[in-house]
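Project standup — Tuesday

K.O.: blocked on the structure for the chain from last sprint. Re-posting the sequence here as requested.
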Amino acid sequence: MNADDRSYQKSFILDMDGVVYTGPKLIPGAMEFVNKLKQGNYKFLFLTNNSYHRPVELRERLFNLGIDVTEDHFYTSAMATASFLKVQRPGGCSAYVIGGRGVLEELEKAGITITSQKPDYVIIAETEEYNYAKIIEATLLIQKGAKFIATNQDLTGPSRRGPVPACGALVAPIEKVTGVTPYFLGKPNPVMMFLARKKLGVHSANCFMIGDRMDTDILGGLESGMTTCLVLSGVTTPEIMERFPYQPDYVFHNLGEIDPDAILSRRNRVEN
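H.V.: unblocked you, prediction finished:
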């Protein structure tokens, strides 16, 4: 391996909610960890299943919490969906979309035509504009042959008043009526993990996936060949973790406990 080849140097992919912040509050140690990544010149990326918010909005949210990074440090399930369709249909395609500005903007940047007239795909994502008429339209289009895609399978998302329906819940009535299960692009789909690493230009052998959910972050990292780090600052407790048939490579209370200089990849742990 060329010593100057940064694709094999240590890199980090981080979930956001429950890892960096909870609601409007920064989780202790998060700012210090990101500063260590910046000071060490590590490649890193914030990865989120939420398709509603654009990178500029995610950057602003972290900036308001005291973490200053550029927009290219974010990768969303909306971006993964647009990239996936560009690969699948390099000649272009069309889609009927029930989703917010985040997914609409990414699809338009990818040259995908948004239409209800014989679309190639029906795409469901997080949105505040979800109604019965749109459910009917999506159902009829899928029955007529449109392929079914959803940005992520999360059933709920966080809000200040408690959990609210997310993409996986919005999909449910359409799936039940059509009998068609959508293809979910978000975590834990290895496609999203691959596309995130591609954006960073790194290899899975020395890439760390840090998250607070066993069924998305840890599973996605495991199936993609990355070293997995579970932080207990979000939804997962040690008792919940033990129920799963797979386990993370590392467990930390929060990001502040992780030393990016000292932590070893799965491959190096085995070799040592």
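K.O.: great, moving the ticket to review. The mean pLDDT is 94. The radius of gyration is 19 Å.
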